[in-house]
Amino acid sequence: QCLVAFDLKIEEFKPEHLGKMNFYLELLDRDVRKPHENPSIGVVLCKSKNDEVVEIALSRQLSPTLVSVYETKFLDKKLLRRMLHKWTEEWEQGRSQPSK
Question: The pTM is what?
Answer without folding.
Answer: 0.64
